[in-house]
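Aggregate trends can hide what the representation actually does to any particular protein. For completeness, the protein is quoted in full, as a sequence line and a line of structure tokens.
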Amino acid sequence: MTVTRARTLGFCPGVRRAVETAERAAARAAGSGSSGFVLGQIVHNPRVSARLAGLGMETIDDPDDASGRLAGATVVIRSHGAAPEVLERLRAAGADVVDATCPRVAANQKAAAAYAARGYLVVIAGDKGHGETLGVAGHAPGAVIVSSAAEAASAPTDRPLALIAQTTVSEAEYEAVRDALRSRRPDLIDVGGVCAASRERRAAVEELAGEVDAVVVVGGRNSANTRRLAELAASLGVPAWHVENAAEIPDELGRYERVGLSAGASTPDEDIDEAEARLLELGLAASRA
């Protein structure tokens, strides 16, 4: 078996920055003897979350989860960002807030706030319930999150619209929502916001799919960008697996001669290296059978 890695895979700059920020915050909290928290998973990857937990950082989903323990504590805002109301609650409770929001996400938050202030209804193309879309929506009171063109067809259009992307949606998803809205509001403001790193990883999977017999995409089960990479590979007619780690790679992959390996933007190098080693072991075992 030969294993070919996608030309771009694994940690993107925003994720790397967030993880390093959280690790520094953990060291500072430990050095001062104060408590350390991360508001949500810093990124959607279990290995990264476990590593931070080992450094003493407790994950909370809401400030109320640490009620009475926030005064003097360090709280890291995850890469997906948070709504202003949440940040205000943390600071009011006396927490030292460390913002690890991805710069691309922060730019979308700023744009959402600016258009909302000008009277636009902000529409966010992305996954409902995702931390990033909820955070962006929090910067634009009344914002609407739509996940498909069908949902966009029923979005309010009684005032000017500004459309902003969740950073990890595909261009096709975003364009479908945009076209559905523009058919109803030709004056729609197309803000964009799809992350270049997500775009690059999708392009790399498209290239890879034409060179291999199967594709394995490694990353957290709840990672939106990882899921989309696996869905993309499958849509290109290549057998594809989304695995969280090497242990989830099935034995049947040993029968493929050429396997492509990709990984989501929140997947650390260790997960990628272990997945490659597992694939090579399966290929070797199959050749001996």
User: Anything to note?
Assistant: The longest strand covers residues 258-263. Residues 39 and 62 are 7 Å apart (CA to CA).
